[in-house]
Amino acid sequence: MLLFLVFILLANFSIGFILSRIIGKGPPQGSPERFPVPVQKYIISRIGDPPDTNLARRVSDELQVNFRIESSGISWTNDESIPDIPRLREEKDFRSDGQNFIVRLRGRPIIVNKTDDGYIIFSPFMPRDLINETNVVIAVVLIITILAVMLYLALSWIFGPIKKLSEGVELISEGNFDNTIIVDRKDELGNLAASINEMKENISNMIKSKESLLIDVSHELRSPLTRIKLANEFIDDPKIHNKIRDDVKEMELMITELLETYRMDHEQGKFSIEKADIVKLIKDVISKFEFKDIQFSSQFAEKEIFIDRRKIETVFRNIIDNAVKYSEGRTVAVDIYERDENRDSVFVSVKDKGRGIEEEELGKIFEPFYRIDKSRDKKIRGYGLGLSLVKKILEGHNAEIEVKSRKNEGTEFIVTFKKGITNK
Fold first, then answer.
1. Across residues 241-260, what is the average pLDDT?
2. Residue ranges per structural domain of the chain
3. What is the full DSSP assignment across 171-187?
4. Cis, bond preceding 368 (omega within 30 deg of 0)
5. Is the pTM of this model over 0.85?
6. Among 365, 389, 398, 380, which Cα is nearest to 314's?
7. Contact, 87 vs 94, CB < 8 A?
8. What local confidence, expressed as pLDDT, does residue 125 receive?
9. Which fold would CATH assign to domain 274-423?
10. What's the DSSP call for residue 364?
11. What is the DSSP string of 235-247?
12. Hey, what long-range contacts does 94-101 have (CB within 8 A, 24 or more apart)?
């Protein structure tokens, strides 16, 4: 607001200054600003009655005065802008019985003198006559342009760091802690940038410490789990044996997902890309599930794409496992197809008819450790790492995943592979 007020004040001052300089020059030397009655009488007496146009021209040149003569048989003027009598009669100030009077024409005073044989009309000089409208317009436009550029530069200087701060905070919110916000200022914005950089470093260090602890613990848990598995083989009670085996499998799955997620975060780009048949890959993944009500369909007998086979197996194992867990015994449909409007992509759909996902939770399901089931129901295993890992693997393949869900009707995951497709 302060900048805009300054801008308006400067614009008004500059325009006013220009106009005052132009008007302040005053009328040309010898040109009276008004016509006293003696001057009018002098001019009338000089040009004679009836008026002599040659004398009129000489008087106008000597005194630099503009006037019009209208009498019987004579119509002369040295300034065509001076209105004639028919035009002046249209104005309410015109007096047919007056000898010397003023008619206001668009705010301009026109002096009318009635003679025995007609009229002599004077147009007094006014300060605005000195103003060249074209030059004034050019000057005003130039001044406003210069002030607008100055205003833009001032705003850029003030708000430029705010844009950097906004971009830096957005990167931090996306988990990018390698970015440093550089604001070469010593004011409040510079202090704010330094505070955000310090906060970012503290958050990054805390996250790294927690990651390190989590990975170290995950590695260390493998040894006792192996011993538990070995000891479990000596338990004769089948019920206890199976329960311990299932718990150990669940812990191994969690540890595997933790370590895989860590590797994806710190070893991005290290994919073993090869040509693989996505149809066969998904069939193999489905065959490893004990749940038999998985309906598979494919538009192709074979479809080869360039992927890291092991990692993509992990993707569909996690997606199908989620569909089975939340389908509550209902059918899970897996479909491979392409679309007419997009022949350069292959789509894989995994759809269940389970409880569905609330709309406000759809944007959070790919966050690490986020679970839709807050009750930690033991019937639904998992720790919220599977979909986070899926997202990271697909991003590394330049693939996309879309989720569609309706409460109590089911959920559909659609994976799109965009590049490296060859048909068979």
1. 77
2. 28-124, 274-423
3. HHHTT--S-------SS
4. no
5. no
6. 389
7. no
8. 66
9. Heat Shock Protein 90 (3.30.565)
10. T
11. ---HHHHHHHHHH
12. 100/37, 100/40
